[in-house]
Write a structure and sequence with these properties.
The complex is a heterodimer of chains A (241) and B (281).
Chain A (H helix, E strand, L loop, with lengths): L7 E12 L2 E12 L3 E6 L5 H9 L6 E7 L4 E4 L11 H6 L7 H11 L15 H14 L4 E5 L7 H18 L2 E5 L3 H7 L2 E6 L2 E7 L11 H13 L8
Parallel strand pairs in A: 3-7, 3-8, 5-6, 6-7
Antiparallel strand pairs in A: 1-2, 1-4, 8-9
Chain B lengths: L5 H12 L21 H15 L11 H13 L3 H32 L1 H16 L2 H12 L3 H25 L3 H9 L4 H35 L8 H10 L3 H29 L1 H4 L4
The chains are: A alpha/beta (241), B mainly alpha (281).
Chain lengths: 241, 281
């Protein structure tokens, strides 16, 4: 990880979040260096989405303690694309941007995600994959220092998901924002991330560096061994696989 | 490798000669062809006309549709109908305009601010529970028996459904869209213009469809009070003189206006919500 400088972009200290007295995140202390791609793995209810939403500042309803620090410019990529159905795709991308050249940049970004021809389309006419491409374009158009992605490909079919992995990786490589990706998909984490955190009961249970070279192949022996370890950590009986 | 032996061919022919398996039952009605919605009203008019012609329906009970149509045409020709129609339309649409405007503004205030909700929502609910007819005596005392009173009462009648539907639509806004607006750091103004208002538009159009007919229905009663103009006045005078054909003309006018207003609102709706039509195409 020599290419990253170790100035932490994201820091949390004893970050705790509770809902109606039930602690979902327990004293999470974490530093993420600038430009690192971190995948958060964990079973349902382990607190990974809560951690992401805490970093995004979207948890007004939680009882909070602890501190966190994130960069100024944060983009969030949701599982559902959250395109406004009454705005054309390009207007969804530029929503809230006050730069004069926003429309031209948006068009270029649509080109980069491969749906340039959909600029004037209504979101309702797009396929699931196209919607998520548009949502990704909207996030990256803001040149974020931190990209928070909450299972962005969870609702896509397996083939589309593979294409999106390649796309996300290429686009992130360009600017190298810090990325926190919440996912259920161990392969997704292993293909994309520099570092994989496993959450369990609201705390970070494991912290793995993934030193495999890109482009990563699932057939690589290190890939396979880490994959089995992670699946085991997530409660999958790997001796049956 | 060709395994299409004669026996196999015979077997496959036997398969195709069997009746096709039954499709699962349809369960829901299919799409209605254009214009068929008018079938019910046309059928009623036809039976009504037949009953009148056969002498089952006396003209003192109810004039035949054809008689009423002839009367209507004559009233238009001799210029007695249009001034009344214009007077009624003036009242109805003045009330409608004020009611829709105020209803939307109250809905915005109550839907987007807590103070507004606390102050306004209860008030409108109270107004909703009180029938317009019950307010007439009081409003006459306040505003007299002239045009102001009539327009005011239409305005209060229209305001309620506009407020309720628009407010509900604003309240029912997708929380996902609100979160998105927050992460995109939209200003409050941008949020209202780009997210809240377009999201509430379908609810607003529902209320508008209710309002365009409501403004006319409130009018009939109000035109009983101190006026020499209006469709309601015309119908009530006809009642006194037993002219059922003029009463039917009035009913036809309401029906036609109702259908026309609804069609206009639907047209506006289709334009404003064109993004919806595209879904599923």
């Amino acid at each position: 990880m020599s290419r990253h400088d170790f100035l932490a972009a994201v820091s949390t200290r004893d970050l705790t979040r509770a809902f109606q007295g039930r602690e979902v995140l327990s004293r999470v202390t974490l530093d993420i260096p600038r430009g690192q791609f971190v995948a958060l793995l964990g079973e349902s209810g382990s607190g990974k989405t809560t951690l992401l939403r805490a970093l995004a500042g979207l948890d007004d309803d939680a009882e909070c303690s602890g501190n966190y620090h994130v960069p100024q410019n944060v983009s969030v990529l949701f599982q559902d694309s959250r395109l406004l159905p009454w705005l054309r795709v390009i207007d969804n991308l530029t929503l809230g941007l006050r730069r004069p050249d926003a429309a031209a940049e948006a068009q270029a970004m649509l080109e980069a995600v491969g749906i340039a021809d959909k600029a004037q389309a209504w979101p309702g006419t797009l396929s699931g994959g196209q919607k998520q491409r548009a949502a990704l374009a909207r996030s990256l158009l803001r040149s974020p220092d931190l990209l928070l992605a909450d299972e962005p490909f969870g609702a896509l079919d397996a083939l589309t998901r593979l294409k999106m992995h390649g796309l996300l990786f290429r686009l992130v490589e360009r600017r190298r924002p810090t990325v926190v990706l919440v996912t259920h998909d161990v392969d997704e984490a292993l293909l994309l991330a520099d570092r994989i955190l496993v959450l369990r009961d609201g705390a970070i249970a494991e912290d793995h560096a993934v030193a495999l070279p890109h482009p990563r192949r699932t057939s690589h022996p290190d890939f396979e061994s880490l994959r089995l370890r992670l699946l085991g950590s997530l409660g999958v009986e790997t001796d049956l696989l | 490798m060709n395994d299409m032996t004669p026996e196999r061919n015979a077997a496959s022919a036997a398969v195709w000669n069997r009746p096709a398996p039954p499709r699962p039952p349809a369960l829901t009605p299919g799409r209605l062809p254009r214009g068929t919605r008018l079938l019910g009203p046309l059928l009623v008019v036809a039976i009504w006309e037949a009953a009148s012609r056969l002498g089952i329906l006396s003209p003192y009970t109810l004039a035949a549709p054809s008689t009423a149509a002839a009367t209507g045409v004559q009233m238009i020709a001799d210029g007695t109908l249009l001034p009344h129609l214009a007077a009624s339309a003036g009242r109805a649409y003045a009330g409608l305009f004020l009611g829709v405007l105020t209803g939307v503004m109250l809905a915005l205030a109550a839907g987007l601010t807590r103070t507004g909700e606390a102050l306004l929502d209860g008030l409108v609910q109270v107004k909703r529970a009180v029938p317009t007819l019950a307010l007439i005596p009081l409003v006459i005392l306040w505003l007299g028996i002239g045009e102001t009173m009539k327009i005011f009462l239409i305005f209060t009648a229209v305001l309620v459904p506009v407020y309720i539907n628009t407010h509900a639509a604003l309240r029912g806004i997708d929380m996902g869209h609100v979160e998105l607006a927050r992460t995109l750091r939209l200003t409050r103004g941008e949020f209202i213009r780009k997210v809240a208002l377009p999201g509430a538009l379908p609810g607003f159009f529902v209320s508008l469809r209710l309002a365009v007919t409501l403004c006319w229905t409130s009018l009939v009663v109000l035109e009983l009070i101190n006026t020499q103009t209006g469709i309601g006045y015309l119908m009530n005078r006809a009642r006194d003189w037993g002219q059922t054909d003029i009463i039917v003309v009035g009913i036809f006018i309401y029906a036609a206006l109702g259908l026309l207003s609804d069609a206009v609102v639907r047209l506006l709706e289709a334009r404003a919500l064109s993004w919806r039509r595209s879904i599923g195409t």
